[in-house]
Amino acid sequence: MEGLTIVRHPLVQHKLSLLRDRSTPTQMFRAVMRETATLLCYEVTRDLPTRPVRIETPLAPIEAAEIAGKKLVFVPILRAGLAMAEGMLDLVPAARVAHLGLYRDPATLQAVEYYFKAPEDIAARLVIVVDPMLATGHSAIAALDRLKAAGVTAPRFVCLLAARAGVEALRAAHPDVPIWTAAVDEVLNDHGYIVPGLGDAGDRTFGTR
Ligand SMILES: O=P(O)(O)OC[C@H]1O[C@H](OP(=O)(O)OP(=O)(O)O)[C@H](O)[C@@H]1O
Ligand SMILES: O=c1cc[nH]c(=O)[nH]1
Ligand SMILES: [Mg+2]
Fold first, then answer.
1. For a disulfide at 160, which of 32, 40, 132, 183, Cβ 3.0-4.6 Å?
2. CA–CA separation, 145 vs 18, rounded Å?
């Protein structure tokens, strides 16, 4: 599908299996989520522009490369996006972070916003939204609505696991936003959970259930 990149790297797929496994305990779940996000960060930043930079190695001068273009801001959707953001910051420690609090109303499955705090210059930055789960797509769509209202252009969306219906809904609402994920599952159950999925990512990350 256009605009959808499935990251099939064996390390990503192995870690996704650990995250899907119901016997993986909270501490390990959070650590593996962070590691997987680092690998996904590598993929989502693959096309960042570079520019030549003149440096001296201990032996000789060289025209090397450095990242050019817009500076990054990661936008974790609370709560479950937090561990992913940590993994991305491991790779891009100079990035800024905007926090967006959303929860799904269990009855309507609509996203309800409860917090938004972003760097003042977010509109000038490359924005990467991170949330492990793209289920109905309501949370991702609300997040991107919010960010575009704040002036953000050309954002990207990274998740760990998506439902087919969520990918389609997000592509329909925000066709300009490319999506990266480790897998797409076909089923979304009546409660909006991805099946087989990995369960409730927020609860499994923070041990709240
Ligand atoms: O695509 P959707 O149907 O909107 O579902 C995905 C959302 O659901 C989960 O958050 P949740 O509402 O459980 O909040 P939490 O992270 O605080 O647990 C998940 O982290 C996404 O944000
Ligand atoms: O399967 C799902 C769907 C939404 N949110 C989750 O954490 N898991
Ligand atoms: Mg949750």
1. 132
2. 32
